[in-house]
Design brief:
- This protein is mostly beta strands.
- The protein has one domain.
- Helix content is 0%, strand content 42%.
- It is built from no helices and 11 strands.
- The strands form 2 sheets. The chain has a 5-stranded mixed beta barrel. Strands 2-6 form a two-stranded antiparallel ribbon.
- Strand 10 and strand 11 form a beta hairpin.
């Protein structure tokens, strides 16, 4: 499957059923990447986030926009590609879906209804096995892709 929404930028799929917050990026973050909370400097009032980069770690949400406001593209894992970023560098603002439907990156095949957790690739989700469930797949995929998900931080599998 390929991303059905390659030009879509910023925001969840359905604003009426979503929780979206503003955060500060701690690094370059691709559109649709899973993000985790990190400790913010004492001089900031907004929470800081960076891409999830360790399999099975607890995630906070999915980046759906930001200062760079890129597009989702085809789901490529190359987060250095210009035009596909929510944030180009640390200290830029990002928009994160913490609950509700949005587009997210996956790095393995998933089926509709699969519970998703952080995979081994930065910012990409995979079918949950033993980690922290962050979302449920609303579309199927056969590999590296952008799919619709329902972010519901369910915790441990």
């Amino acid at each position: 499957m390929t991303n059905n929404y390659p030009g879509l930028a910023r925001g969840p799929i359905d604003h009426q059923a979503s929780s979206v917050i503003n955060m500060i990026a701690n690094e370059r973050i691709a559109m649709g990447s899973s993000v985790k909370l990190i400790a913010e400097p004492s001089s900031e009032i907004l929470p800081r986030a960076e891409e999830g980069d360790t399999a099975l770690e607890a995630l906070y949400g999915v980046a759906v926009g930001g200062d760079a406001d890129g597009i989702y593209g085809d789901g490529s894992l190359g987060t250095s590609l210009d035009g596909f970023q929510a944030a180009d560098e640390a200290t830029q603002a990002i928009v994160v879906v913490t609950q509700g439907r949005c587009l997210a990156r996956v790095d393995t095949g998933v089926s509709i209804g699969d519970k998703l957790e952080q995979g081994a690739n930065a910012g990409a989700l995979r079918t949950a096995t033993t980690g922290e469930v962050i979302a449920v797949a609303l579309q199927a995929s056969t590999g590296t892709d952008i799919i619709a998900v329902d972010v519901q931080r369910e915790g441990a599998v």
